[in-house]
Amino acid sequence: MQTRYWNLQNDTDGVMLREAAALIKAGEAVAFPTETVYGLGADGLNGTAVRKIFEAKGRPNDNPLILHIADKKDILKLTTGLTKQAEILIDKFWPGPLTVIVAKSSIVPDEVSAGLDTVAVRMPSHPVAAELIRLAGTPVAAPSANLSGKPSPTDAETVLADMQGRIAGIVDGGACSVGVESTIVDTTGPVPVILRPGGITREQLEEVLGLVELDPALAGAETLKPKAPGMKYRHYAPKAKMYVVEGEALQKLPLLAVAAAKFAPVAVICGGEVAEAMKRAENLHILNWGTEKTELAVKLYRLLRRCDKLGVELILSEGVTEDGIGLAVMNRMRKAAGRQVLTADEIDALLKNSTQLKSFVLK
Ligand code: TXA
Ligand code: MG
Question: Which ligand is located closest to the Cα atom of residue 116?
């Protein structure tokens, strides 16, 4: 399939967005920017069109999609009724990086909801997304525009790398400003539950809702089944083995990184402070995200893909505290690392024994 590529910087009269919207209306899949990550959109009321998304991504079909709308009132057609909590959230956080799970109406195809009796709905704030959905004149079903299992794309070049030849078109509207996906809140029960932390923080939700629960499966108990089906997959995984280093262990990260780089290429994903403390060495790639957690959110997925391109054997990633956007960032970082963490004691042991360090790096 020929994939069209529209760079909106050259779209002086809106003709490109109209072409993209026409393809969505015609039942094709088109990638577009949102404030969180790039989405791969299709007509959300057309089951045949929605199936093209699953095919292009290689996505398991038990994983439901989010319907994107351009007007708050458009959710009313998609649901049999909103709870008070849902109304409060929509009023306060739309448009923006928040998805609500609501009881679905009969017009939502099974391909979207994967057989559940609920549906996920979000109204993005990105002006390009809003205009494209409005022009398409239908709710747009859209997962992140990556191949299944890879980190979500936060720019159009990355979408192209994953999706060229697999979809009808890509709308390039520049880089995403949030960088991690939307927060998903199940509003159907008595207490709202965060199924996936994201761009709207837990603190922001608590401010308007009072009590908010976290899906217990998010705390890492592998035995629990997450309520958002997609959260059970090992997402965001880079090719190299990856470890989170945090708290007390962080001081030892620079020494470990330099020592490990003697055996194979190593990447360190870290903030400016740790980057400054680190000696430069051959085969050591320091991927510095800056000072604020919001910067880490914006860059994390791009840095994970960068590690793949660099061909490193080992990734050491600085963990941050789980307040604010840190909850979403650490959820993704821990998943990328397959939940592997290095403690201060473990690092000490590796630094003392170079044979052990070598086999750790090369294993
Ligand atoms: O920021 C975002 O949310 C991006 C942009 C493109 O809007 N989209 C996104 O979609 O992250 P996706 O498909 O990559 O992730 C959607 C998640 C999956 O984990 C899925 O299982 C969950 O939402 N989900 C969808 N419908 C659901 C439902 N009815 N109940 C529970 N979880 C649901
Ligand atoms: Mg995704």
Answer: 1
pTM: 0.97
Please work out whether the CB of residue 145 comes within 6 Å of at least one atom of ligand 1. no
Q: Which among 119, 181, 231 is the best mutation to test ligand 1's pocket, defined by most ligand atoms within 8 Å of the CB?
A: 181
Position 196, amino acid: R
Is the C-beta atom of 79 inside 6 A of ligand 1?
Answer: no
Question: Can you tell me which residue has the tokens 């991927």?
Answer: 287
- Identify the residue whose C-alpha is closest to ligand 1 atom 33: 228
Distance between Cα 201 and ligand 1 center (Å): 17
Q: Which residues contact 91 (CB under 8 A, 6 or more apart)?
A: none
- Closest ligand 1 atom, residue 119 Cα: 29
Q: Are 243 and 316 in contact (CB under 8 A)?
A: yes
Residue 254 CB-density burial (10 A; 0-12 exposed, 13-18 middle, 19+ buried): buried
**CA distances, 202 to each of 38, 39, 207 (Å):** 23, 23, 9
Cβ(228) – ligand 1 distance below 6 Å: yes
Q: Residues 114, 61: contact at Cβ < 8 Å?
A: yes
3-state SS assignment for residue 121: strand
The reply to whether ligand 1 has any atom less than 6 angstroms from the CB of 39 is yes
pLDDT in tens, 262-303: 999 999 999 999 999 999 999 999 999 999 999 999 999 999
Q: How many whole angstroms from 66 Cα to the centroid of ligand 1?
A: 5
In DSSP notation, 171-239 reads EE----SS-SPPEEEE-SSSS-EEEE--SS-HHHHHHHHS--EE-GGGGT-TTSPPSSGGGGS--S--S
**Angstrom distance (rounded) from CA 109 to CA 354:** 58
Rounded Cα–Cα distance for residues 271 and 273 (Å): 6
**Could you read off the pLDDT of 300-324 as tens digits, one per residue?**
999 999 999 999 999 999 999 999 9
pLDDT digits (tens, 9 = 90+) for 157-208: 999 999 999 999 999 999 999 999 999 999 999 999 999 999 999 999 999 9
